[in-house]
Structures are given as structure tokens and as C-alpha cells.
Design brief:
This protein has 187 residues and is mainly beta. It has helices at 2-14, 89-94, and strands spanning 27-34, 37-45, 50-63, 72-86, 104-114, 120-121, 131-144, 148-161, 172-186. Strands 1-2-3-4-5-7-8-9 form an eight-stranded antiparallel β-barrel. A hairpin with a 4-residue loop joins strand 2 and strand 3 (50-63).
């Protein structure tokens, strides 16, 4: 009997329990950079597993070829609203993995608008045509230490281009691809 009680006491002293609740955080602010841009974002809790991500940033692009003197580079503003469903929070907690800063796998509906406000480029007189895209996306976010994180995602969806405002006869639509790899800092 004494051995059993001693064993139970020792086991209870060695078991550690993490007190993470299985919910996205109430609000997460951060910045991220990737190969093709930089962004500031906020994620606001809607339910225990759903957060609304709002984002403003600069998307980048490059171009080149035989017709250009040098490789072209541009940055243009983007505004994004993206509801995200973090579907594996309970599984991560059961395996004692972190969910702070909304670390987990997600499915989202990324809606982005590129306004024709300004363009930063190494060429003169570069303009863009405003567009809006809606792309269902699957992705993951993981923490690196307390404040840093990385995120990757992939999705395919729809893009509508407001070409008439730029002088073309008709607006256009096409398939849109969302492929991103970002590293970020959470405040």
C-alpha cells in the first residue's frame, strides 16, 4: 500500500498540465514579410475556432525579358479580409503543442483588393489595374519563440479585373493563385 501511494505521489509531481484553452486569441497584431511583399495584420476572434484576419500591405511583382533594359520590380497596395477556420486546435492541445498567436492549421477565404492608388517601381510611369480576388486557401502558422512565426498557404480561386476603368472595352476575370511563405513578428 505504501509503495502504491508513493508511486502515485511521484507520478502526480512529474505530470505537468498546460493551461491552454482551445480557442483562437481575442486579438492578434503582427507584421509579416515574404518574397513578394510586406503586410501588417490583425486577427479578431469570431468564435473559438474562427478568426477574421484584416490585412494591409504591399504586394510585389517582378518582370523581365528581351524587351526590357533591366528586370522590373513593383510594389502596390493591397487590402485583405480573410475569415480563417483553425480546425486543429484541440488536436494540437491534446499533443501539448502551442496554439498561442493562433498557431495551427487553417482553411480560409482570402478576399484581396488591389486599388490603383500608387505604384513603387524601378521603372517610370508604371500603373496597375485594380482587381479583386477570392481564393479558398489552406495554410499553417507556427511559432518560432515567443514573438516570431512563419506561415505558408496555398489556394486557387477567382480574380476580377476592373479593366474598363483603365480604358479597356471589357472587364476581365481569370483564375487566381495564392501561394505564400511568410515570416512574421507578433506584438
Amino acid at each position: 500500500m505504501k509503495k502504491t501511494i508513493l508511486t502515485l505521489v511521484l507520478l502526480s509531481l512529474t505530470i505537468t498540465v498546460k493551461s491552454q484553452s482551445t480557442s483562437v486569441e481575442k486579438s492578434v497584431f503582427g507584421i509579416q514579410i515574404g518574397l513578394f511583399g510586406s503586410w501588417a495584420h490583425n486577427e479578431t476572434k469570431l468564435t473559438n475556432q474562427i478568426a477574421l484576419r484584416s490585412e494591409i500591405g504591399l504586394d510585389s511583382g517582378i518582370w523581365g525579358g528581351d524587351f526590357y533594359d533591366k528586370i522590373g520590380f513593383l510594389m502596390t497596395p493591397v487590402i485583405t479580409a480573410e475569415p480563417r477556420w483553425y480546425y486543429n486546435l484541440n488536436k494540437r492541445v491534446s499533443k501539448s503543442k502551442r496554439i498561442d498567436g493562433n498557431s495551427g492549421n487553417f482553411v480560409s477565404l482570402k478576399t484581396s483588393f488591389h486599388p490603383d492608388w500608387f505604384v513603387i517601381s524601378n521603372y517610370d510611369n508604371v500603373t496597375i489595374i485594380s482587381d479583386i480576388s477570392i481564393v479558398p486557401t489552406w495554410g499553417i502558422r507556427r511559432n518560432i519563440g515567443k514573438h516570431f512565426n512563419y506561415e505558408t498557404g496555398i489556394g486557387i480561386g477567382y480574380r476580377y479585373i476592373f479593366a474598363k476603368k483603365a480604358g479597356y472595352l471589357e472587364n476581365e476575370s481569370e483564375t487566381a493563385l495564392n501561394l505564400h511563405l511568410r515570416i512574421g513578428y507578433r506584438f
